[in-house]
Amino acid sequence: MLTITNTPHHTGVKISGDYFDLDGLNQAIYHVIGEEEKYYDYTGARMRLLSVSYAIRQAAQGSRNIETVFNGFHEHVKKQHNFIAPDKNIYFSVEILWPEILFAALALRDFSLLHRKEVQNPEWNFHLHTIAHFQSLILDCLHGQIGEKDYQALLQAFSSATPMKDYAIQYIDFLNLQYIGLTALQREKILPAIAAKIAAKDQDYLSFRKQVLAVANPAKKAIHEIPFQADYPETIVW
Questions:
Q1: Beta-carbon contacts of residue 229 (< 8 Å; ≥ 6 apart)
Q2: Alpha carbons 170 and 47: distance in angstroms, whole number
Q3: Could you tell me if residue 232 is inside a domain?
Q4: Which of 108, 181, 189, 228 could form a disulfide linkage to 170, CB 3.0–4.6 angstroms apart?
């Protein structure tokens, strides 16, 4: 079963599941975002989703975290059926920073809407339901970290957020690094504001985007082609 939980230091979320859970999620992401340049205005958002997808794929291959989870196979069931088997399953997991996963939830909303226009009977489309389940798990995890009033406000903000097309994806790097630099207590307090910033595209974002465009336009480059000039720490305390 796919699960998403907050990490101990509130740095991000841990996406966990067995191989089939993670592989199915990864396939669904690839399915809805489409081929490269299919939705050109969403190239930047697609790049961010591919980075999340890559981390999930690495986890499914056993390159990240491996843990054992009780599978419900009690001793009395073993005796009843005269069957010997382990009572734990192997689960794989990977951590994703909070700003990154929140942006992913919003970007997937846009790609899902685009994909719905192209498939017949989208209400029965397996991949769309997998993505919707993934998004709901992200928001449910967020719900567990913030107050009810903040959560209801964020639900409204996420529902009414403008499309992520031509998004200055460097801003997510900026938020990620800011967030990493905080203490666990500070992260816990600022998480609702971070989520709101991503959904609302506030003045800070607009000013940041203007700076990126000031570099992109003279060079005749797309906004997503401008690299973010900062490095992530080699080790993140999750």
A1: none
A2: 11
A3: no
A4: 228
**Considering the domain boundaries, does residue 238 fall inside one?**
no
What is the per-residue pLDDT for 47? 96
Torsion of CA 155, 96, 15, 49, to 10 degrees: 70
The Cβ-side half-sphere exposure at 159, using a 13 Å CA radius, reads 7
234 belongs to a structural domain: no
Specify if 65 maps to a domain. yes
Q: What is the DSSP letter of 2?
A: -
The residue among 117, 69, 64, 63 whose CA lies nearest residue 91 is 69
Q: How many domains does the chain have?
A: 1
CA separation for the pair 140, 25 (Å, rounded): 17
Per-residue pLDDT of the chain (238 residues; tens, 9 = 90+): 899 999 999 999 999 999 999 999 999 999 999 998 899 999 999 999 999 999 999 999 998 899 888 766 656 555 666 666 566 788 999 999 999 999 999 999 999 999 999 988 999 999 999 999 999 999 999 999 999 999 999 999 999 999 999 999 999 999 999 999 999 999 999 999 999 999 999 999 999 999 999 999 998 999 999 999 889 999 999 9
Burial class of 160 by CB neighbour count within 10 A (0 to 12, 13 to 18, 19+)? exposed
Q: Which residues contact 55 (CB under 8 A, 6 or more apart)?
A: 64, 94, 96
Beta bridge partners of 70: 88
Q: Report the distance separating Cα 18 and Cα 114, nearest Å.
A: 29
Instruction: Give the residue numbers spanning the domain of 172.
Output: 3-225
The 8-class DSSP code of residue 231 comes to: -
